[in-house]
Amino acid sequence: MLTGDLMRVKISKERVLPIYLNRESAQWLEAAESLLAIFREGVGMTRGEIEGEIDELFGGGGKATLVHRGLAKVLENGAEFEVVADVPPDVIREKVFTAAAAYRKELGQAHPQLHEGDSIPAGGRPARPIFRREVVLEAVGKELNVEPETLVAGMFADLRDENRMLSFQDMTAQRLIDRYNVALAQTVLLRSVRVVVEVRGESPARYRQLFRQLKFHRLLYRVSGSMREGYTFHIDGPLSLFAATTRYGLQMALFLPALLRCKEFRLDAELRWGPKREPKSFHIDAGIGLVPHTADTGTYVPPEIPAFAERFRQVVPAWELSETADIVELGREGVWVPDFRAVHKKTGLDVFVEVVGFWKKTTLDRLLDQLPRLGPERFVLVISDKLKVDEDALEKLPGPILWFKEIPSAPELAGLLERFLPGKQEGLLP
């Protein structure tokens, strides 16, 4: 994201309109490529040296335009800097300043009435020795077993401008412009009180990704709608909270790239803008053309899962198995979006089915804790035997479990589903 002083926006009829860069503009592509060249050659240089080269290229004395400094900020955010010093700078400062004070005291005690620069009166005592910086550095260097030059170089190495760049995330010039545009929108969202997001026409996998991202970033939200009609999310903005707005605002901003991957969406935010927190509005939709820069995770479906679903439909005609993005509310602990809904064609009875083959263990453990307390009445978990699962948590589940090695067995799942039909409710526990 950008800092507030780097934002480029205009206000029109109470709306905040970010001034995005044209990703095809030769002017901005050339500027982006020049900045990338500085960072590519800047590995090992200090932050201050890199900023000096940027000022020299685009305008000395800090006169580089907001765009140039904003593009540089995006690159800096993706760079790794470190304090380079053989001895921690705070230790060097403590030792040097203490030794310097003792040295001055020693000189003062020897000649209390004279100061550096005083002339020697005729027939008077000789002037006291002048304070010599190298004496202090040599003494401290011996104590710390380093050269005096090393002490000087490391004394303030922890200051921002003295941090050295170890690496940075290289990219194309156009990708840098894309990241800048998204960062501009993210920075505006930090001023939001409420955000309403509408998403239409997405796949179940994409909807599940959105729900999981909302939960992962711990955003406070309400949702309505269905997979057929689309969903509307009402999300609390950072400025609606009384505390921790910086961290929450960051989480809000990090959710945006996942939304940008949707084909049809709109985001409307209510803002509090400027020092006086004046009410403003902000809008994004798919037509603006913001390009996400994060990895598209959470939508991959291993090929064996569709194969399993198709096999089930072939050999189990009594049940209809379909992908779903149905929302199962789990109280204040979020929502669960199962993979499938199985509907018994004769009775209309439905059962949620979740295939747990590629999850992180922490995610599975959380679900096993939530479902017995807050989950739906009927569900089946299909779990890979490659996962290490808490046996005590499994015993608390109210529904059956289907274990599988490579591909879940369609007939075995049908057998578990049949146990939910009227008159077959006994023995549901695995």
Q: Could you spell the SSE succession in H and E letters?
A: EEHHHEHHHEHEHEEHEEHEEEEEHEHEH
Strand percent estimate: 15-25%
Chain-averaged pLDDT: 82
CATH topology of the domain at 304-418: Trna Endonuclease, Chain: A, domain 1
Number of strands: 16
CATH architecture identity of the domain at 304-418: 3-Layer(aba) Sandwich
**Biggest β-sheet: strands ordered side by side in the sheet:** 6-7-5-8-9
- What top-tier CATH class of the domain at 304-418 fits best? Alpha Beta
Number of helices, where a helix is a run of at least 4 consecutive DSSP H or I residues: 13
Derived from helix and strand composition plus strand pairing, the structural class reads alpha+beta
Query: Roughly what percent helix?
Result: 25-40%
The major beta sheet can be summarized as: 5 strands, antiparallel
Instruction: State the end-to-end distance.
Output: 49 Å
Radius of gyration using CA atoms only: 32 Å
Contiguous low-pLDDT stretches (5 residues minimum) are: none
